[in-house]
Amino acid sequence: MAGFGDLMKIMAHAKELQAQAAQFKEELPKMEFSSATANGGISVTVGGDFTVRSISIAPEMLNDKAFLESELQNALNSLPLIP
Q1: Secondary structure (DSSP) of 5-18
Q2: Less Cβ around it within 10 Å: N or C end of the chain?
Q3: Of 74, 41, 70, the residue nearest 58 (C-alpha)
């Protein structure tokens, strides 16, 4: 059974985690996550607030609509998850 000292340590740790979570929440919108297709034809950057910051498409990708859509989907789906 946990003693009073253990309970105080747990409460202090919980308060520390709360502060870290608040800081992360504040910094998240400033973060950016980028990805590109294997052939480099498309690159995307998304902000931590889930806004698309940029999409770059190589001119040769514009010739095949279905391929372009597929590669754009691949680039977006390969964005790293929020750490």
Answers
A1: HHHHHHHHHHHHHH
A2: N
A3: 41
Residues 6+ apart with CB under 8 A from 36: 42, 43, 44, 75
CB 80 within 8 A of CB 48: no
Q: CA 67 to CA 54: how far, in whole Å?
A: 19
DSSP alpha helices (H): ranges in 1-83?
A: 4-27, 65-77
Predicted confidence pLDDT, tens digits, the chain (83 residues): 557 778 888 999 999 999 999 998 889 888 999 988 888 899 999 888 888 899 999 998 899 999 899 988 888 888 876 55
Given a contact cutoff of 8 angstroms between Cβ atoms, the answer to whether 74 and 37 are in contact is yes
